[in-house]
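I'll show a typical protein example:
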Amino acid sequence: MHFFDDTLLPENQEKLVIQAAPYGPEWLPSDSDDIPVSMEEQVQKAVDCYNAGATVLHVHVRETDGKGSRRMSTFNELLSRLRVAVPDMVLQVGGSISFAPEAEGREARWPGIDTRHMLAELTPKPDQVTIVINTNQMSMVELMSNDDIAGTSMARPEYYSAYREMVTEAPPSFFVEHLKRLVAKGIQPHFMLGSIHQLETVERLIRSGVYTGPLVLNHMALGGGYAGRNPADMLEFVRRCPDGAVLTIESIMRTVIPVCTIAVALGLHVRVGVEDNLWRRKGERITTVEQVEQMVRIAREIGRDVATGEEAKRIYKIGTYYRDADEALVQLGWPPNRVPGQRGFPVRAPEIVSSTDKPARVAKSAGMQARETMPG
């Protein structure tokens, strides 16, 4: 992403989209008073988050006993209720479904590939399903201090060990097929990336035409195999993202607030909620709604507008897909693919042409033309 002299001026920045992650599948209900369990409580939590200023809802589901659900029928029920209760929110289903241990002493693991493919069959369909790229360690507790997990199930040795050893299984055979299924159903993939290497894989998928939709993604500063908390790593990831991407920043525990504050100032988007963070400051709990309200206050303090639900759907490009790799590269702002025999660095050379009574800028890339009307 390119930052100009006026990029940090809030009037030039896109309105802030706040993702709320209120369901926290890694926590037991006893870990926080803010974890909804019944279907009614889960729906009400979404309403409360929306009223506070969140316009994207990261969805996991719990069974009536408080355990994370892996049943598609339970997801369908919650999605149906959410469509009525918060019709303007972007509904983003967590692609892990539920990674919590099924019992004490069991491993924390993502459901199998075939189970995750079933997310493309959800009814009603969500706006998005998150997707990880490349199998990777995801040791959730690496950046958690003893203070972070004090008084929670994560402090128990069997749970701590389970989350320390967790791996996200996402080989090419999974993500290529998963992308195909989601796009076929009109569900936007939301990429959850923790390294530049994963971003490079996504770029290759786009350049080869495997995926030709918008690039909507999170940078996951979670540690344990994903990015850590060094701001320099986050800024390098931002630098490597194309200008046409929609980038949200997320972190873990008490660094959620400072990292998201940086994101707000940079013109990026944020994710908050008890799935990522339980603490306002050391020893003081904070709810998901309070975290959303905090991001709204921070945005207003620096003069940045917060997106409405309708605006969030536009910003996220919900329902938008591009014809092919060439158009996707143009829309994202990446250089075109190299054509046979071409030397040097490929650049997109615009030329000004006449179009009725208004000039138009045409961006040519490997034989494709994308027309954008210029103001005039």
Summary: Residues 351-376 have pLDDT under 50 and may be disordered.
